[in-house]
Design brief:
Strand content: under 5%
Shape: flat
Low-confidence stretches: 1-9, 18-35
Distance between the termini: 30 Å
Oligomer: single chain
């Protein structure tokens, strides 16, 4: 299993580093000694999740976050909805451009974003 974890860490390290997250998987890959223990089941879920596309991982993260109880969840969702509407309005006014999703996700997969 350690080899699989090391491979997962290698592929996930840039993603974790980008958001400032260190996990035992990244630690194993880097030889770092800090350990954040998870159950074997959680390890398997993580390894499976790291095989998903960026969009699927984002959807999974959103569903996991929704499972927590946040007192201000409604307010946060309302703010994001307003932000999305503002961005759509700016696009429709010609104030901002767009890129095809396939191009953006390809750049994410290549580690450019």
């Amino acid at each position: 299993m350690r080899g699989a974890l090391g491979a997962a860490a290698q592929s996930a390290a840039p993603m974790f580093a980008e958001i400032g997250l260190e996990t035992k998987y990244v630690a194993i890959f880097r030889g770092w000694q800090r350990s954040i223990d998870m159950s074997p089941q959680a390890d398997r879920v993580l390894l499976d999740a790291l095989k998903l596309s960026p969009l699927e991982r984002a959807e999974l993260i959103e569903k996991l976050l929704v499972s927590f109880s946040f007192p201000d969840r409604t307010a946060i969702d309302e703010r994001w909805a307003a932000e999305a509407e503002d961005r759509i309005d700016a696009y429709e006014r010609g104030e901002t451009g767009s890129k095809p999703a396939a191009e953006v996700f390809a750049r994410i997969e290549q580690g450019e974003l």
